[in-house]
User: Fold these one by one.
Assistant:
Number 1:
Amino acid sequence: MNTPYADLMKFFQTASSRGKPEFISPNRKIFEDKAVVLRRFDEDRTGDPILIVPPQAGHHSSIADYAPGQSLVQTCLKHTARPVYVIEWKSSTLSRREETIDDLVQQVMLCVKKAGAPVVLAGLCQGGWLATIYAALFPGDVRALMLAAAPIDFTAGGGKIQDIVNTLPLMYYQYLVNCGGGNMSGDLMLMGWKMMNAYDRFVRDYLNLWIHVRDENYLKRTKTFSRWYEYTQDISGRWYLEAVEKLFMQNRLIKGTLEVLCEYVDLQNISCPLALLAGERDDITLIPQVHNLELYASTPRDQIFKAVIPLAGHISVFMGRRALQHEWPAALAFVEEAAYSIKGRIAASDLTGLAAAG
């Protein structure tokens, strides 16, 4: 029975819904250490695997496998015949607070080796710049590079994050890390994301919830999102500060002055096929921040797929229904053609030559 009291109960129960998010698709752990879990989402597929690198921005890695119809994992399984892996990042502990970008790259390296190089590397948001660094340092490990809402040219086009890092001094971010005892608190990061769209997060979301309080499907979707969005994870304060200063403030990845594992990261080392996906309404990572990688990589232009997803905000680029039904299948098909068709034709011609010689 719908009564004002029942409506209020539904509203408050939904608004306060919390819990640890989980991957929705069947999977098994391939590898686990103090920093990561490597998960495989198929049993018997062969070939170069797809390795998804989720963001570390205070939230859980299950965004790559968020919900039915909103799962990049399921899209990859449906539209390719390749094994699919996801890196699950663990919340940083005090013993890990000194981890650097070097450590992040080594963690990816472990996962690439366990999955089986070469891989199709798919970097989402903050996982995108990490995947790009890895592809530049170890190009032989990466068959193709796919980036979604990933900042690469950090200062291109401006945007809200650039406004913030250009306004607040580095000591402000150092203070935030000190508040976390050397880690960057996931709760503080979440508050920062909310403040970037304060009216939407603190007013509009609750107005919409009240308007739809008798819509059970709406309540279910809201609870699912809250479990992911409100569940926070800490990250190492040291690599967080490195990213703020060297990437977001100084744009060293584009300038070629970012040093990782004792060498400068040269984007010209990337010559594999690229798929670059951006959101039309993404105010976190603007379109040129993603697409400008084509200006610095050595990949031929005819092996670069670029897409702007209509009406998509930031996370909708890699978990929105529109993107997963249209742009991602097109990008996966493009990568399959660009990365493997020439190889296949060469192999076929070699076999023909051997047959003729025989």
Note: Residues 11-357 form a domain with the Rossmann fold fold (CATH 3.40.50.1820).
Number 2:
Amino acid sequence: MAEHGRLLDAVKGQPRAVWVTAFAAVIAFMGIGLVDPILKSIGEGLDATPEQVTLLFSSYIFVQVFAMLVTGVFSARFGAKRTVLTGLGLIVVFAALSGTSTSIGELVGLRAFWGAGNAFFIATALAVIVGAASGGQGPAILLYEAALGLGLSVGPLVGAALGNISWRAPFFGTATLMAVAFVLCLTMLDKDRATGEGRSVLAPIRALRHRGLLTVASSAFFYNFAFFTVLAWTPFVLGWGPTAIGLLFFGWGLLVAISSVVWAPRLAGRLGESRAMLLGLTAFAVLLVVDAYGTTGAVAAVTVLSGACLGLLNTLYTGAAMAVSDSPRPVASAGYNFLRWFGGAAGATLVGHIANWAGNDQAPFLVAGALVAVGAGLLLLGRRTLGTLHVVPVMAPALANAD
């Protein structure tokens, strides 16, 4: 309890820029899970197959991945505030346009531009929060991961509530909320300072030459493949309506948020970060195997429980990526996120095809479990490149100093 109190003390009293950016991050991450409850409705409304509908994740993430290579250059040239506002502006426009789509191809294309906006925002938001936060990197990462978890949990609720009106309504609702975030960031973030700093588009890729960062990012590739398998395919396996799916993923996202903020630092402090990640990956792999062979009730229960593993792993991976490399934080973050989200895009793209090839709707979960094991194996093989570095436990001194 004392440790939990120190955590709360460290999070309290953060500068205005941190809270504004964190709020915008919640809305941005809502866009990932927003379509979950309405995937079936979109398919019915636009006469699309499940494989076509899951492209809503694929186009969004693939474009986000490659756009992240540009965000570092853009941010260095124009400043963090302008980069954040550019991302938010793109999301507002293309979220609204998504609600006007007349075909699945058009919607997939508009989601791609939405992904570009997300890239500009997400890649810069973490650097803004880390740079502005008081108490060091630890509390900043916790706030960022908490925003991710809250966004993932609230997104399905918004999608379910508005999806009962029309599958188009969640897109218009997200555009409205993001417009609010845009105004807040415009009026409350500090003005940019012209640095004139030059940065190569390929700098994030070159950062992956660092063996420690490459180990973490490569493992995260396989982990994120499984992450988006759960996110993109569970609604089709369960076959439930928007409200039930929305509530299910709200519980899932709530566990993501709680475990990322409260449990991850404590587990890493006790076991060390590498062991904590291996434990989280092992538990996630076991849950995915249950997903592959379980009944509908078991799939629903496992989906919610997996949120605890995902929250732990999100924080542990992000902490490692931000500290293991000797590259500047924005560059290391972009390189790590490039591989991490690429895995998510691959998972969302292939999940429907895997089910078709196997002739079994639950087969994608088994493949995802095997890939999580591959991710754990990479961490084991590369543990020497991480050395004795305990990134998330570094939060412990920060939390202790918060008294």
Note: Residues 2-192+201-400 form a domain with the Growth Hormone; Chain: A; fold (CATH 1.20.1250.20).
Number 3:
Amino acid sequence: MELRADVALLDIEGTLGSIAYVREVLFPYADERLDAFVEENRDDPKVRALLDLAAREAGVDASDTAGILAALHRWIASDAKVTALKSLQGLIWQEGYERHGVRAHVYEDAIAAMRRYVADGAALYVYSSGSIAAQRLFFGYSAAGDLLPLLSGFFDTTIGSKVEAPSYARIAEAIGVEPARIAFFSDNAAELDAAREAGLQTVQLARPEDGTVAVDRHPAVTTFDGVALHLSRTAI
């Protein structure tokens, strides 16, 4: 598959890294550490602000720590795309990456493609429901080493929902390129629908190991092998 694009916008879970790693390693780690982390850091202004945000989202009083924690655990169990939760998870994962040897899983074909695209002059950006801080940790502490030098920037749900077209329009504006010059890679059909509505090119990663089923309305591949990016103009 050959695409004419200057930018690759990349999802993480099910696209660059396995769903199993996120669901079976990262989520349980945050769930197990959450209560102790909040107890140890509740007076930290950054943590306090996130707890207050979570309280408003859950509809409980900001002083109701038990109620806030109960909501956070529910959101982890349901993989809710709640900004306060994602930010707290990122802080907990930072502890795991930096102190306890946690290392992120990234598919070898994805790493090879990222290196290939950058070598060919394309710019790589990440758009994930995980916080930008968590994304930076994921790539900085991957099992393949530090992949951050390959990436030009990061976007999370603070720019908007991944299943709403205006989010992708805002990303294109932030990068400074026309939407049609961006190729968005994701396993999630609803995200791809929103990106296409905004004018982006789309490719679905339908990895068998992640159980992703390809849809017929987007080009689909099982790996990044054979997916080439050709710049639409001089590299940005």
Note: The longest strand covers residues 123-127.
